[in-house]
UniProtKB/TrEMBL annotation:
Pfam families: FlgD_ig (PF13860). This is FlgD/Vpr Ig-like domain-containing protein. It comes from marine metagenome. NCBIfam families: Por_Secre_tail (TIGR04183). Residues 166-220 form the FlgD/Vpr Ig-like domain.
């Protein structure tokens, strides 16, 4: 509860606190219940609290209403925290203010009446138009065409629910399990992507006809494989 004296008038406003804990899971919610955050152990290095304020308490010249601020715009978490807005719409995403001026869309999912994302920082948050394709889970799709000669396209997903720091790698192996070529190394950006393989190894040498495997791995332990056929 915030209380201020303005002349003969007493103004009261409700504000919320997120009590972050170093060694346990923690939560915080705005007074109106529309905005919430949660963090796992390791998100903060010591127990501390972050204020949660809605735009009704912002300065009169603040041009982005229906926003919320968590703490300040400078704190970085040790692990990304969960950020949620209550909404039934699936065409909206969560935005975080960047550099105190512009707004950056965060990869977001709509689930069970909430819009969900991860954030590595505190700051101002609001809803805006969704423009990023955001898979739920990390996966790799069957290449196309298949069989192929000499180029094939591989689509893969880096899913939001599997975290922001997955370090995705995509590698080609032959039927004996021998390394042929690394196509992607330590990619973190959430979204849906494609990469092509031209049927050559790391040294630019064409590979022979046969069965090959494309493998997606992450540092979090996800392993996905697809079988491909190269024809000459």
């Amino acid at each position: 509860l915030a209380i201020a004296d303005v002349g003969d008038t007493v103004i009261t406003e409700l504000i919320a606190l997120a009590a972050a804990r170093e060694a346990s899971r923690w939560f915080g919610r705005s007074v109106d219940g529309r905005f919430s955050v949660a963090g796992d152990p390791g998100a903060v290095s010591y127990d501390q609290s972050f204020i949660i304020v809605d735009s009704s308490l912002f300065a009169d010249d603040f041009n982005d209403q229906a926003s919320y601020v968590l703490g300040d715009e400078f704190f970085e978490f040790g692990k990304p925290i969960e950020v949620r807005f209550g909404s039934q719409r699936n065409d909206l995403a969560i935005y975080r203010r960047k550099n105190g001026v512009t707004w950056e869309e965060l990869p977001s999912l709509s689930k069970e009446g909430e819009i969900f994302t991860f954030s590595e920082k505190t700051g101002y948050f609001k809803l805006g138009p969704k423009t990023i394709i955001v898979p739920e889970e990390t996966n790799i799709h069957q290449n196309y065409p298949n069989p192929f000669n000499p180029i094939t396209t591989i689509m893969y997903d880096i899913g939001l629910m599997d975290g922001l720091r997955q370090n995705v790698s995509i590698t080609i192996y032959n039927l004996l399990g021998q390394h042929v070529k690394t196509l992607i190394h330590d990619k973190d950006q959430v979204g849906q992507f494609t990469v092509q393989w031209n049927g050559q190894n790391e040294f630019g040498q064409p590979m022979s006809t046969g069965v090959y495997f494309v493998q997606l791995t992450t540092k979090t332990g996800i392993v996905k494989n697809k079988k491909m056929m190269l024809l000459k």
